[in-house]
Amino acid sequence: MRNCIFSLSVVVLFAAPLWADMITDWKPNEAAVYSGSNLSVGWSASIGGDAVAGGALQLGGSATVEGNLFARSSITTGWDSSFGATYGEVGASLFDDWTFPPLDMKPNGGQALSALSDSTLSLSPGTYGDISAQWRGNLELTAGRYYFDSLTLGDEAKILLDASAGDVLVYVAGDTSLAWKNSITRYGSGGSLFSIGGNLNVGTENFVDSSLLVGGPATVGWDSQVTGQLFAYGDVAIGDQAVINGDQLLAIPEPGTVLLVLIGVAVLARRRSGHKLLRA
Question: If 0-12 CB within 10 Å is exposed, 13-18 middle and 19+ buried, where does residue 240 land?
């Protein structure tokens, strides 16, 4: 780990030929955070593994990255930030070997449901419309596959993932929005993955015990924590004092594997609802 203690931000630029042989075994799908565009990490935020940006990478003051920094263009590191090796200005060659999988999801058109305040809504695996939980509402999901048009949580709402019988996989065609002091908690030996076709907005002081795969931009607000990996096709903004552990709760697969999974999801969704969910 290396500390950056300059009084001004430092832009780190390295030419690919100087270090290309050092990262021949690099696997971006094992990163803690991956942005297909620009990645910004706020003041005193923490990332538990590699941070990868398909554009520019900006690391705020006192931020910590337990792994290395990779960026197609520039890397900027703030005062007193801590990180491993830096690989900036790599150009297209490194990233062309690993293309972020497309998430072209279509609305399911299923029933819209909402967990009311101070109540619990238990859902079985299946196809639904817009899903929400109001203030202090609770959603319960068990092992299996879920297909939502959108997902919205009000303040202090919770999602409980019962992974005791296997993985919990949630496919959201549109946007996913968390407000304030939400929690997505998992128990059991299975993993969890939220695959989101639209935008992801994780508000402030939230806890998400899952990996996240996002087709649009992703924002993680102040003092929020994501225990799994965070991958987004668009820009990724990690707020001040936010934490991304990067644990492989349900490892982000290689692109070819992801595409096969998405195609399988599309076929299954058409059989269930008569609507095409994904187009890969």
Answer: middle
Tokens of 39: 């990645």
Let me know: does 223 contact 241? Beta carbons within 8 Å: yes
Q: Alpha-carbon distance 143 to 164, whole Å?
A: 7
Q: Is 180 helix (H, G, I), strand (E, B) or coil?
A: coil
Q: How far apart are CA 87 and CA 239, in angstroms?
A: 23
Could you give the CA distance from residue 9 to residue 14 in angstroms, rounded to a whole number? 16
Q: Two tokens at 57?
A: 């990478």
pLDDT on residue 147: 93
pTM of the full structure: 0.82
- Which residues of the chain are under the pLDDT cut of 50? 1-22, 256-280
Burial of 81 (0-12, 13-18, 19+ CB in 10 A): buried
In this predicted structure, what is the pLDDT of residue 30? Answer: 84
Report the amino acid identity of residue 77: T
H/E run at residue 216: none
Distance CA 12, CA 191 (A): 36
